[in-house]
Records
---
Amino acid sequence: MNFDTIIKGGTIVTAADTFSADIGIRDGRIAALAESLEGAREIIDARGKLALPGGIDSHVHIAQPSGPGIVMADDFESCTRSAALGGNTMVLPFCLQETGEPLRRTVEAYAALAVGKCHVDVAFHLIIRDPTEAVLGQELPALVKDGYTSFKVFMTYDGLALTDLQILETMAVARETGALMMIHAENYDMIRFLTAKLERQGDTAPFFHAKSRPIPVEREATHRAITMAELSDVPIVVVHVSNREAMEEIRSAQRKGLKIRAETCPQYLVLTEDDLKGLNMEGAKYVCSPPPRDKASQAACWEGLQSGVFTLFSSDHCPFRYDDAQGKLTPKGRTSFRWVPNGIPGVAARLPILFSEGVGKGRIDLNTFVAVTSTNHAKTYGLYPRKGTIAVGADADIAIWDATKRMTITNANQGHGADYTPYEGIEVTGWPVLTMVRGRTVMRDGALVIDRPIGQRLQRALPAA
Ligand code: DUC
Ligand code: ZN
Ligand code: ZN
C-alpha cells in the first residue's frame, strides 16, 4: 500500500489555486497530490465535492471563568466537537490569566482541561490581565519561547482592562520577543459612562447593551490601539471588528504601511442590534461585544473581507446557555444588561455562513474563503505551512464540502454545549460533510465517527509578521 488513505476525485481549493487531484495521505500528512493515485487501505470518494484545508478558528473561548455564578457552556470536548461538525480541524482558545496568577500556572490549568478531550487540534493564546514586572520581564518571554506566541489584551471590562501605559509596556514585550498581540478595542470609560446613564434612565433590557457601546466607542479604541502599535513598532491583530468606522481606521493604518491585521466574525455579517430587541430576555441570546450593528455595518464588514483589510474570519465562539441561571438568564441579568454574560456560540456556524453568504452569493471567491477561514490563521499565528493548506508535507487536515447541500442552521446541528444558536433558522447552501484531522476522519455527515478524541495540543512558531 502506498498510502493510508486516498481522497479521490475532489476539487481541491487552497488560498491560491483550485484544481482537481487525488490526495494521498500517509502517517497523518499529505504525501502526494496527483491526477490519479492508487494503493490505499481507505478510499474516500470526493467526486463532485470540494476538498478544502480544514477550518482554523483562531478565536474561541473554552471553559473560561466568566464571573461569579456564570459557567461557560462548552468544555474542550463539546467545543471541539462543534468545531469538527462545522468543518474545522483546529481551534485557538485562550488561557485567561487570573489576577496575581503566574502565567505558567495559567497555561498548565488550561492544558489540564484540554488533555484527552479535543476532537480537533488546539493551540493556546494567552490573555494578559495582570502585567506585573515578573509577568512582562520573565514569565511571558519564557512562554513565547515555549510556543505561546500570541496574546490578547483588553481595553475594556472591570478587572481586565489594561491602561494605555500597561498596553505600551506589554507591546514592548511583543517587540522584544516577536510575539503577536491581539487587542479588544473598546473605550472602557465611555462604556462605563453610558452604562451608568442607561441604568439611571431605566434602560436595562438586553437591547441597551448595544447602546452602551456604540460605534465611536470601538472607533476611538481602534485608533488608539493602532497609534500605540505604531509608536511601539509592533504588528497587532484588532479582533472582532464590527463596523465601517473601525474598519476605515485599520484601512488607513495599513495604507501607511503599518502591520495592522484585523478580524471580523459572522455576527457582524448576519446579525444586527435589532436581534437584541427580543421580548422578555430573548435579546440576551445576542449579547456580545462589540455588539452586532446595522445593515450598513454588515456591508462594511463584507467590504473589509473583500478588500483584504480583514484577513481573518473567526467565530469569537464564547457560549453560554440561555435557559440557565448560570448563563444568559442569570437573575442579575434581569436587573441590567451589564450582568448578562457576554458572548455567543458560533464555531460550527462560522464556515457555512461565510460559504453560503460569501461564496454562494458571489461576494467572495472560494480561494478567499479558504484564506480568511484557514490559511491566514495558520500564517498569522505561526502554524503555516504545517496547517492551513493542502500541500505535500502539510498535515492532512481536510474538510470535504458539498457545495450544493442545503441546510438550515439550527441548535441541533451545532453540537455545542449551548441550548441555542443565535443563527437559528438561517438557510445556507454548502455544508461540510467530512472533517479529517491529521489523516483521521473525525466527522462524517454531521456526526463524530471516532471512538475517542484525537486532537493534539500544539506549540506555535513565531508569527510571520
Ligand atoms: N471579547 C471576546 O473576544 N469574546 C467574548 C467577549 C469579549 O468581550
Ligand atoms: Zn474581545
Ligand atoms: Zn473573544
Note: The CA atoms of residues 54 and 322 lie 30 Å apart.
---
Amino acid sequence: MTETKGQMSATDFDAVVVGGGFAGLYSLHKLRGQGLKVRVYEAGDGVGGTWFWNRYPGARVDIQSLEYSYQFDEDLQQQWEWSERYAPQSELLTYANHVADRFNLRPDIQLNTRVTGATYDEAADLWQVSTSQGDKVTARWLVMATGCLSSTNTPDFPGLADFKGRTFHTGAWPKEPVDFSGRRVGVIGTGSSAIQSIPLIAQQATHLTVFQRTANYSVPAHNGPIPEDVVRDVKGRYADFRAANNATSLGADWDYRADLAMEHTEAEREAEYEMRWQRGGLSFYGSYVDLLSDPVANNTAAEFVRRKIRQIVKDPAVAERLCPTTPLACKRICVDTGYYDTYNRSNVTLVDVKAAPITAITPTGLRTADADYELDDIVLATGFDAMTGTLTRMDIRGVGGVTLKDTWAEGPKNYLGLSVVGFPNLFIIAGPGSPSVLTNMLPSIEQHVNWIGDTISYLRGHGLKRIEATAPAQEAWVSHVNETAAPTILPTCNSWYLGANIPGKPRVFMPYLGFAPYVAKCEEVVANGYEGFALA
Ligand code: NAP
C-alpha cells in the first residue's frame, strides 16, 4: 500500500515506468521527487536505452552533445564534460550510468525485465502490469518510456536463419567487440546506422559489400573535441541557450535562417549550403525556412549534396548510385565521418538492391535477383519498427479489455502524443503524435516528463484518480498532426516516419512537426483546466 496525498492507494506502486533509457531515468527522478513510489522495468541488463542497444561501430549522436544532454539539473549540466562535439555511444552510456548513480536511481530500477502486458482495472482505476520475470504489480500511473526506435526490424529474408556466418543487427549489437578482420562482410541498408558503421567496418574487413535499396543524404559531422571557448560560452549561458533552442521548430541549435531559398541567387544559396557543409552536422536543416515546404527550394539543397557526392566519389557510376533522388530530409538526414569517401576504397562494393532485390540469404552469403555474394558476416542495418512497434508488441489492454494494438490497427491515434482514448492513466513519452523524432530528443523527453509529472501532481493534489483524453480532442489532434505534415515534403517518401519501412504497417505520418508550438499547446491545455482530457 502506498500513501498518496489525500487518499490511500491499494497499489504496489504509484507509477510504473516502462524503459530505463533517458526518458525512463528522468521519469523516475521526477516522479520520485514528487513523493511517488516508482518502479522502472528495463529489458536490458543495464540502463541507457538506445545507447545500451546500439553499440555498432561508429555509433554516436547526431545532435551536439552540449544539447543532447539533460537540462533538469544545473550542476549536472555544468559538471559533465563531453569529450567530443558528437559523443560516441560509449560516452552516452557512461553518462546514462552516471545519471543513474548520481541521482541514486538504481534501487527503483529492475533490470532484465521486459513488461509483457498491462491491463486497466476500471473498478479500481489502476494498471495491472506483468513482466517477463513473472512480476504482477499494480500502479495508478503507467508511463511508457519505451523509446521511438527500440524494436528492431529484421526483414523476412528467406534463408536468414540458415546463414552459416555471423549475423548482427545494428540496433541489438553485442557487448563484446566485434572484429571484422579477414572477413567478407555484407551490410544491408544505408540509413544512419549503416552510414556511421560502414566507414569503420570497411577499415577492418577484407571486403565490404553494401546492399543499398534507397540512397540517403548525409552531411559531414566534422566531429572532434569541443573547443574550450565553446564549452565556456554555452555553460556560461546554459539556461538561455536551452531556451533559445526550445523556441525553434525542431528544438535544436541549427542556426535557422528565416528567409526563403528562392529569394536568393544560386550563388548565394551555394555559399550558404557550403558554409553549413563545412560547419558540419544537422544545422544543414536550418539553411532556409522553406526547405521542408517548397520542393523547388528543397531540390536546390538536394542538388548541392548530390554535387558533393559526385566530387567525393571517384567512380562516376558508384557516385550516381549514391545520389539520393528523394527530397532532402524526407528521411532523416544522416551525419557521417568519411561515408562517401569509403566508396573510393578498393575493398568496398556498392550493390543496388532496388534494381535487383535481395531474394534470399544463402548458407554462405546473399542472393539478389541477379547475383550471389559470398559473405562471412551479415550486418542488418535495417532499422526499426519505429514509434509504435514497442508499444503494440506489448499486450496493453485498456477500458473494456481492448488492446492498444487493435486500437491502433489503422495507425496511432492519441491526444498530444501523450494520452490515448480508452487507456486512462497511461502516458507515452515522445510517442507518435508528439514532436519526438523531429527534434532533439532530450529536451522533448524532458518536456514530456515535466508535463506528466506536473499533471500527476495536479491530479493527486485534487484527489483525482483518473485522466483520459476525450474522443473529440483526440480526433482533432490526429487531424492537426496530419494537416501540419501534409503540405511539407515529409510524407512524400517511404520513411519510417510513415511506417513505410515495415510491410503491412499503416501509412500514417507519426511525429508532429513543430516543437515550440507543441510546447505552447501543452501549456495551453493545462491553463484551460486540462482541456481535452476527462478527469475523474
Ligand atoms: P533506417 O533509417 O530505417 O534505415 C534502414 C535501412 O535498411 C534503409 O536503408 C532501408 O532501405 C534498408 N532496408 C530495410 N529493409 C530492407 C530490405 N528488405 N531490403 C533492403 N534494404 C532494406 O534505420 P537506421 O539506419 O537504424 O536509422 C533509424 C533512425 O535511427 C535514424 O533515422 C535516426 O533517427 C536514428 N539514428 C540516429 C543515429 C544518430 O543519432 N547518429 C544513428 C543511427 C540511427 P529503404 O530506405 O529503402 O527502406
Note: The pocket of NAP is lined by residues 60-62, 149, 155, 170-171, 188-194, 196, 213-214, 332, 353, 358, 381-384, 437, 494, 496, 501 (CB under 6 Å).
